[in-house]
Amino acid sequence: MKEVETPAPGPGEVLIEVSRVQLSVTECMLYRGTEIAHHDEVARRIRESNGGAQLFGHEFCGRIMAVGEGVDAYAESDRVYAPGKPYCGECTYCRSNHQHLCDDITSLGFDCPGALAEYVRMPVEPLCTLPDSVSDAEGAALQPMASSVLCTLDADVEPGDTVVVIGAGVMGYQCALLADRFGAGTVYTVDVRNRPLELAEQNGVKAIDATETDVVEAVNKATDGIGADVVFEAVGGDQSHATEGGEPIAQAFEVVRRGGTVVQVSHIEGEIDLLPRYLRSKSIRWINPRKGVVAIQPGTDTGRLAADLVADGEVPIEDYITHELDGLEEFETAVDITLNKDEYDALGPAQLVLD
């Protein structure tokens, strides 16, 4: 913790009074020293900053207190969250309207200060306004929801599809509900925990308890041996083999039908063995979804659609907001809860309430 001057917004920027910030699992892992992407740089900055690194905090909501020169799309008192990332605007991808592929994207809470602060200055590109009916708690949890919207759109779910979601964490739960809302015929969610499975069933999704049921056998039986049209792998983590054994990603490739799609929602840590011939023989489309905010139609994008779906009650993301702590002083406890959900009986990451 460190006392700093309240920043003033520059051209194209706004000053945000942070209402809530939700820690991501990746941020917590980096903070605790897990050797994943950028861990060396994060460790160095924490070690050398004396409390001034201003790392982390890309999942948040707040209210705009001041706008900088040239900002027309936002005004003081607007409530916002950040589903996107600032892009360079100059590379080949940006110039061809593929900003989500920009190779010089700015990451909030890494390349520029994040929202683990009472006030944060940010560029307007990654921001999106919040409907009045979306609470601050939901607003702080909306960034993963916007990513789940992208995952589901990139899966190309068709009317009547059989969809299987392996892992009912925050984004797995959201992808299952979104696939159902986007027209899938039957959606199955797979997990080993009772509460996520119960919530999924309450929202129209069929639950498979992997501790009691063989997932591949159950899906094959339900589809006359064809398999699922689309499978979301939403467990990630440390896995050893993608096409052999019974780990989540191997399950996903086994349960998907020939010519089907596997969407890699969660990050796989480190390296993983893979037999390319297996994927080729089944003609599997294994995709890593786009990032940031992507336009859907002239009138909306994935960030706004995510907020509207929550505002309308189509995807009740508040189900996974189970732990709310007062103040930045509770950061260490929030990290513990987020990394040890079972120990704290938590479903989603912990949130810090700042106002």
Automatic annotation (TrEMBL):
Residues 10-132 form the Alcohol dehydrogenase-like N-terminal domain. Keywords: Metal-binding, Oxidoreductase, Zinc. One of its GO terms (biological process) is small molecule metabolic process. It comes from the Archaea. InterPro entries: ADH-like_C, ADH-like_N, ADH_Zn_CS, GroES-like_sf, NAD(P)-bd_dom_sf, Zn_alcohol_dh. Pfam families: ADH_N, ADH_zinc_N. Residues 175-285 form the Alcohol dehydrogenase-like C-terminal domain. Its cofactor is Zn(2+). One of its GO terms (molecular function) is oxidoreductase activity, acting on the CH-OH group of donors, NAD or NADP as acceptor. Belongs to the zinc-containing alcohol dehydrogenase family. This is Zinc-binding dehydrogenase. It comes from Natrialba asiatica (strain ATCC 700177 / DSM 12278 / JCM 9576 / FERM P-10747 / NBRC 102637 / 172P1).
